[in-house]
UniProtKB/TrEMBL annotation:
Source organism, top-level taxon: Bacteria
Function: Catalyzes the adenylation by ATP of the carboxyl group of the C-terminal glycine of sulfur carrier protein MoaD.
Annotated catalysed reactions: [molybdopterin-synthase sulfur-carrier protein]-C-terminal Gly-Gly + ATP + H(+) = [molybdopterin-synthase sulfur-carrier protein]-C-terminal Gly-Gly-AMP + diphosphate
Family stated for the protein in its record: Belongs to the HesA/MoeB/ThiF family.
Keyword set includes Nuclease: no
GO CC annotations, alphabetized: cytosol
Residues in Rhodanese domain copies: 265-347
Gene Ontology MF annotations: ATP binding; molybdopterin-synthase adenylyltransferase activity; sulfotransferase activity; thiosulfate-cyanide sulfurtransferase activity; ubiquitin-like modifier activating enzyme activity
Protein name listed in UniProt: Molybdopterin-synthase adenylyltransferase
Catalytic activity, EC: 2.7.7.80
Class in the EC hierarchy, top level: transferase
Annotated source species: Paludibaculum fermentans
Subunit note: Homodimer. Forms a stable heterotetrameric complex of 2 MoeB and 2 MoaD during adenylation of MoaD.
Gene of this entry: moeB
Amino acid sequence: MLPEVGAEGQEKLKNSKVLLVGTGGLGAPLGLYLAAAGVGTIGLVDFDTVSVSNLQRQVIHGTKDIGRRKLDSAADTLLDINPNVNIVKHEVALTSENALAIVGAYDVVADGTDNFPTRYLVNDACVLTGKPNAYGSIFRFEGQASVFATEEGPCYRCLYPEPPPPGLVPSCAEGGVLGILPGVIGLIQATEVVKLLLGIGQTLAGRLLLYDAMNMKFRELKLRKNPDCPVCGTNRTVTKLIDYHQFCGMPKEISALEVKAKLARKDDFVLIDVREPHEHQARNIPEATLIPLGQLPQRMLEIDRSKLVIVHCKSGMRSAKACTLLRESGYPNVLNMTGGIDAYPAS
């Protein structure tokens, strides 16, 4: 019924392909409304399972889905809304090896990630493949949104040339987030995706929208393309995807499934839990030694320097900081357990 859309615009949406990186707090409202809008193909990238702590913000999942793969839960919900949508599941971690192939198959990418290595990876993959990136991020009571990697506009690196030090910015799981906040930011991202697909309106390209939920205020900052940007500038030095964990100063990683397998094989390594005692009491891996992050500098001698050391926390941020501390103190073989205990199989 909208003259700016019409039957022609609806056909455009039906023939469009959108990639959602993550089916969590931001990916949930993105997926719900893009499916309802009639986007023909929605790709989902996720390799996590639904936990009860997700449900206050990840509204695409329900209590019946706890323990299920997020991809399956999200797909069922989207197909319930629109049985004609084509759901493509990518049950992988987006990496430098697979990002170009995955991103290149879609028209628009919506970044719903919550960590810096993947944000830089998504940005660079979008720039290199020429796909616009509807970006959003959230933390506690604040959110931001923009559109990056358009032909004329800036990219994420133009805004943030360097990542923050590891562990400085906690994830939503560790730092907390108002559950309603990702709904607001995710719907802004969904709006931008639809406008990009239809070629209508003024997008957030060249603008950063800041949202303060506590005071119910929106602000806008103008962004300019950085001519010296190594990815989208005039003299580009980043012409292929790099090691983004190394770029962000993050430690080498090991999946929770691999850690479980190593424990089952009784491999010789040390597993350290850097959460707080009350977190450890609620749920723990019996083979792990509890050394809260704040106590690590004083208790480092308790950790055998000659062995492989694997560190975990709730979701991977505090353990990343712990890995950095251990490496800087001369521990040669340290790995961070991806996703923390949230990603560790319950059985």
